């Protein structure tokens, strides 16, 4: 998947070399990031194979159980249940933006940027709103912070409207490189810290520190997603909205149980970005 995305991106960039119009600018905006998870458990019983898939998103768990006999699917059961957990963070992005129109006569072009992104949440990334309220009521200080560089590359088509207005639609990949992803909680004389990129945790109680490593807390620094969105502009001022669907598995765990069952758990990062930008014409 990552290789295919890279090939498509290079092809888009190559086409842009023949651009007829180029603009640079600056942009900033609001970010909402949330994770969705998938757990797959495979169990074997003679010639029967049972595959259980669980998707968690937006406070709902969707479960599908598939039954196979001699590698042929014979039954499938589905159900949904409510859950209180959805990892999510809020923040902003800011950086230079580029609009490369392939030709003055056509609206097809390439929009890309290089943004610094900051995300945070008051609590752990898996805390619910009720749990965060409990933290506050019990005087527990907890925060999670995420810093990254974003490189969105969008193929766009712009429609010019009367009186200097224009709208566009766009789609394409976004690559994120994590710089720092850490959480910290303090209550009384105890402080718990976690580095989500290394999986290392540190607990300090009364001046004594205990350091450990937990693979369940380890996330990949690199994230690849695919976004779809739209924009509207007046002269050199623009507003856009893009939703990116996570393609990279940020947090993957494999677990083997007694040789009869195998489980895999994976996290994917989805993001919504609302952006305001101003562009400076460079080439007519």
Question: What percentage of residues falls in helices of 4 or more residues?
Answer: under 10%
Radius of gyration: 23 Å
Mean pLDDT: 82
Order of helices and strands: HEEEEEEEHEEEEEEEEE
- The strand count comes to 16
Structural class: mainly beta
Poorly predicted runs of 5 or more residues = 15-19
Q: Beta-strand level of the residues, as a percent range?
A: over 45%
What does this structure look like?
By secondary structure, the protein is mainly beta. 8% of the residues lie in helices and 71% in strands. The protein has two helices and 16 strands. The protein has a 16-stranded antiparallel β-sheet that branches. A hairpin with a 4-residue loop joins strand 8 and strand 9. The longest helix has 14 residues. The chain starts with a helix and ends with a strand. The relative contact order is 0.18.
What's the topology here?
Blueprint: H1 2-15, E1 21-45, E2 48-57, E3 60-69, E4 72-82, E5 88-103, E6 106-113, E7 115-121, H2 129-137, E8 141-160, E9 165-187, E10 190-195, E11 200-205, E12 208-213, E13 222-234, E14 237-246, E15 251-257, E16 261-283
Antiparallel strand pairs: 1-2, 1-5, 1-16, 2-3, 3-4, 5-6, 5-7, 6-8, 7-8, 8-9, 9-10, 9-13, 10-11, 11-12, 13-14, 14-16, 15-16
């Amino acid at each position: 998947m990552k290789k295919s995305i890279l090939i498509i991106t290079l092809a888009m960039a190559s086409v842009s070399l023949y651009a007829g119009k180029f603009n640079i600018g600056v942009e900033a905006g609001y970010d909402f990031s949330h994770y969705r998870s998938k757990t797959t458990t495979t169990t074997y019983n003679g010639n029967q194979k049972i595959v259980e898939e669980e998707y968690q998103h937006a406070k709902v768990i969707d479960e599908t159980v598939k039954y196979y006999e001699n590698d042929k699917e014979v039954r499938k059961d589905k159900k949904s249940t409510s859950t209180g957990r959805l990892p999510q963070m809020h923040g902003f992005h800011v950086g230079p933006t580029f609009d490369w129109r392939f030709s003055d006569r056509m609206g097809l072009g390439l929009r890309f940027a290089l943004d610094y992104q900051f995300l945070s949440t008051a609590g752990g990334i898996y805390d619910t709103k009720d749990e965060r309220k409990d933290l506050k009521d019990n005087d527990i200080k907890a925060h999670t912070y995420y810093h990254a560089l974003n490189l969105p590359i969008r193929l766009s088509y712009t429609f010019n409207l009367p009186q200097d207005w224009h709208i566009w639609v766009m789609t394409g990949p976004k690559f994120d490189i994590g710089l720092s992803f850490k959480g910290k909680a303090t209550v009384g004389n105890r402080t718990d810290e976690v580095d989500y990129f290394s999986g290392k945790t540190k607990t300090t109680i009364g001046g004594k520190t205990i350091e450990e490593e937990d693979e369940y807390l380890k996330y990949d620094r690199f994230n690849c997603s695919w976004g779809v969105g739209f924009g509207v502009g007046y002269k050199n001022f623009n507003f856009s909205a893009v939703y990116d669907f996570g393609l990279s598995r940020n947090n993957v765990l494999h677990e083997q149980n007694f040789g009869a069952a195998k489980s895999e758990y994976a996290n994917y990062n989805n993001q919504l970005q609302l952006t305001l930008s101003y562009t400076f014409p460079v080439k007519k």
